[in-house]
Write a structure and sequence with these properties.
alpha+beta, two-stranded antiparallel ribbon, BirA Bifunctional Protein, domain 2, seven-stranded mixed beta sheet, 12 helices, single chain, 340 residues, binds adenosine-5'-[phenylalaninyl-phosphate]
Length: 340
């Protein structure tokens, strides 16, 4: 019996080694474990064996049977894996819960959008409403209605992208002041964010950038209100310790006019490359609405006074995040954008 089982085992080993398909493995199972297979034949032969030998021989047959079952099981698993590796289609049929999942990586808001939203929410907290205006303007809204006639030297810096004779890509958000005043009666408090265009290009200037315009018209609005609103805004965005200063300036549509600076947040006022060693950085232009502008929109300049301001969003974002080249905002480099 031992020799017979050994012979069957050698036969089985040699056949299973050469088995490379599920079909021949199924045949092997039938030949060894099936009703007429060799294990059953051995079991039948056991009936004729004397009772004292039965237990020992029965154990040998059962050991052989378990050996055959385990070998077939292992071979089946091996064939399953190699088939899956060969055929990508069949691998989809198996779900492997241990594989790492595919993580969705959500996008984030662009830093300029984030700063715009922050600025909007500060002014909305002060009672300002958000307005919009067109990016393609006529000469009238971009210049003439803002008291910048054709031959005025103030046009020089912004005399840039004309679409045809009269249409111009707006060079600032100030024309929104005119649209709003033409369409609504005072009192009013608005801000107007948006893109503007100028023929400018260096580390702190781009041909397209973003501004936010502000306009407040009411009875008895004074320069003190302008200073107060600007100070609250700048200390909200840069911190309560931020020092703010007003310098006299000139804009044809405001009188008096001012440039507003903050103490350099990079060097704390000691002087550095960003503030050109002055300790101060210009943030925005502002002033009291020129009565000549009120006249063009039919506002009674004896009754109403107004404050206005226009700030560059990129300039604020650069100082807030310590960025030294404005062009980084528009290169769409994910290594830069992922930091916000
Ligand atoms: C104006 O555009 C005025 N309209 C602002 C104003 C509004 C004054 C209302 C009074 C009343 P200015 O040209 O200085 O002003 O531009 C305002 C801000 O835009 C600047 O302080 C600067 O931060 C930003 N800026 C100007 N040119 C560029 C540019 N090419 N790239 C990026 N930012 C710019």
């Amino acid at each position: 019996m031992i020799e017979t089982i050994d012979k069957h085992r050698r036969d089985f080993d040699s056949r299973i080694r050469s088995t490379s398909a599920h079909e021949s493995l199924a045949q092997l199972r039938i030949d060894f474990l099936g009703k007429k297979g060799c294990v059953q034949t051995l079991m039948k032969e056991l009936r004729q064996v004397a009772p004292d030998e039965k237990r020992q021989r029965g154990k040998l047959i059962n050991d052989f049977k378990r050996y055959v079952e385990n070998q077939i099981k292992d071979k089946q698993a091996g064939l399953g894996k190699s088939a899956a590796a060969k055929s990508p289609a069949s691998s989809n049929a198996t779900f492997d819960a241990t594989l790492p999942g595919k993580r969705e990586i959500p996008g984030t808001l662009h830093p300029i959008t984030q700063v715009t939203e922050e600025i909007k929410s500060i002014f909305m907290g002060l009672g300002f409403q958000v307005e919009e205006g067109p990016e393609i303007e006529t000469d009238y809204y971009n210049f003439a209605a803002l008291n910048i006639p054709k031959d005025h030297p103030a046009r020089d810096m912004q005399d840039t992208f004309y679409v045809d004779g009269d249409a111009v890509l707006r060079t600032h958000t100030s024309p929104v002041q005119i649209h709003v005043m033409e369409n609504s009666a005072p009192p009013l408090r608005i801000i107007a964010p948006g893109k503007v265009y100028r023929r400018d290009s260096d580390v702190s200037h781009t041909p397209m950038f973003h501004q936010i315009e502000g306009l407040m018209v009411d009875e008895n609005v004074s320069f003190s209100h302008l200073k107060g609103v600007m100070k609250i805004f700048l200390q909200e965005i840069f911190g309560a310790d931020t020092q703010v200063r007003f310098r006299p300036s000139f804009f044809p549509f405001t009188c008096p006019s001012a440039e507003v600076d903050i103490q350099c947040v990079i060097c704390g006022g000691r002087g550095c490359r960003v503030c050109s060693q002055t300790g101060w950085v210009e943030i925005l232009g502002a002033g009291m609405v020129n009565p000549a502008v009120f006249k063009l929109v039919n506002y009674d300049a004896e009754k109403w006074t107004g404050l206005a301001f226009g700030l560059g969003i990129e300039r604020i974002a650069m100082l807030k995040y310590g960025i030294n080249d404005i062009r980084l905002f528009f290169e769409n480099d994910l290594r830069f954008l992922k930091q916000f």
